[in-house]
Write a structure and sequence with these properties.
alpha+beta; two-stranded parallel sheet
């Protein structure tokens, strides 16, 4: 039986409270409190554990992507950052298990060697059948682990459009009719409330630089098919079972028809559900993928630094009630760090020394280290040489890419790739 949503929320809020004060939003000199969004991932495998959490509300503009070179995070909204932290946590779990050596019966707290792994592996050596196995990852999530997420705010994008409307002076949906639906050439941001169920960019002020980071609603909808694993992590772990079981939202952040529209079988994912259950099922299943919609539940628990909590705290202040925090706390059961503008606090934004352990570059290095230890059946040169873009074209990611393209075509039309930060290599910063 899955844990009660209040129990999930209590678990992750307690984990946040246990962080040092420097990880938390501040009270400003004028008396205002900073506000932030919190998203952690937890497991129901006893005892209930907060595996990863993050806070954050910003993202990198498109015109700065080519300067990132794998060192700067593109999107540090809490939901996305928590998933990145969770991926690093899993890579570290794989590394810990690899140190113990290859035994099918050997398990870590979260991961284990694939039970049929001897068909493709023998102590890190490829067998004659390895080339015939579509999914060659040596590790998998334990069967007794389920993953749950608490979000202190409704995910930006489609799942929160009605909430955004209600914050306006006039909550009537706009009906301009002059702005086309989002296409492969254009993605809408916060406005045009008459267009629902579409892929959107991260919302921002009208005068803010454009970002191509997709909304958290869109990214979570995609994760229902792609699993929570990043491409890099999926080189080590089979995606089967690494899916979100429950998304927990505060009661006043839950608009049922918006949630169903954004994520549900009767909403924009309807086409995926229909086709997957017929022609696509076998090809997705062989690679460990599937359409696994999470259940959305509500909680009475509130994050003390949410917009609503900050406004209540400052209700008697003549100053504006709250201001968004520029700090992002990033924490797993193994690591902690503080980020500002997508890099470590105290570092200049594009300084390679400021790269987070959840950055593309750090993750690539960490996965390579584990891949070498566990014997991923693909030449190290294919994973390590060339650009980040070339690595993403690895044969180990072909099935994942095919699933992604299916979902974009069927349900998330208009998804525009963020491709300006893929030309760098591990050898050259």
């Amino acid at each position: 039986m899955p844990p009660h949503p209040d129990v999930i929320a209590d678990c992750v809020l307690s984990a946040f409270h246990a962080l040092p004060a420097k990880f938390k939003p501040r009270t400003l000199a004028d008396g205002r409190r900073e506000e932030d969004a919190l998203t952690p991932s937890s497991t129901s495998s006893p005892p209930l554990t907060c595996a990863a959490l993050a806070t954050g509300m910003k993202c990198l503009p498109q015109n700065k992507l080519e300067l990132a070179k794998g060192n700067v995070l593109h999107d540090w909204h809490a939901e996305v950052l928590a998933i990145r932290a969770f991926n690093r946590f899993l890579v570290d779990e794989c590394a810990d298990l690899a140190k113990k050596g290859f035994q099918v019966q050997q398990e870590g707290g979260w991961v284990r060697w694939r039970q049929h792994g001897q068909n493709a592996f023998d102590g890190g050596r490829e067998s004659k059948d390895a080339e015939n196995e579509e999914c060659q990852q040596p590790l998998e999530l334990r069967e007794d682990v389920s993953i749950h997420m608490y979000c202190s705010e409704a995910p930006c994008g489609d799942a929160s459009m009605e909430l955004v409307m209600m914050e306006q002076d006039d909550a009537t949906p706009w009906t301009t009719g002059s702005i086309p639906k989002a296409t492969g050439e254009s993605m809408l941001g916060r406005g045009h409330f008459d267009q629902l169920g579409i892929v959107r960019r991260k919302p921002a002020r009208p005068d803010a630089p454009i970002t191509f980071s997709k909304s958290c609603s869109d990214k979570l909808a995609l994760k229902q098919c792609m699993s929570l694993l990043s491409g890099l992590t999926s080189m080590l772990l089979r995606p089967e079972r690494v899916y979100l079981s429950t998304l927990v939202l505060p009661k006043d952040q839950h608009v049922p028809h918006a949630v169903e529209r954004a994520f549900g079988r009767q909403g924009r994912m309807r086409a995926v559900a229909g086709v997957y259950e017929s022609s696509m099922q076998e090809s997705w299943r062989r690679a460990g993928y599937g359409f696994n919609p999470f259940e959305v539940k509500t909680t009475s628990r509130e994050f003390e630094y949410s917009k609503r909590s900050a406004r209540t705290t400052n209700a008697t202040s003549p100053a504006p009630s709250a201001t968004p925090s520029n700090l992002s706390a990033l924490s797993t059961a193994k690591k902690q760090e503080i980020l500002i503008n997508g890099v470590l606090q105290g570092r200049k934004q594009f300084d390679p020394k400021g790269a987070s352990w959840a950055s593309r570059r750090s993750m690539w290095k960490a996965v390579l280290d584990v891949a070498g230890a566990v014997g991923v059946p693909v030449p190290q040169s294919e994973m390590a040489e060339g650009s980040y873009a070339e690595m993403k074209s690895s044969k180990l990611l072909e099935s994942r890419e095919a699933v992604k393209m299916d979902v974009w075509e069927l349900a998330l039309q208009g998804w525009k790739r963020n491709v300006s930060d893929e030309a760098w290599t591990l050898e050259v910063g």
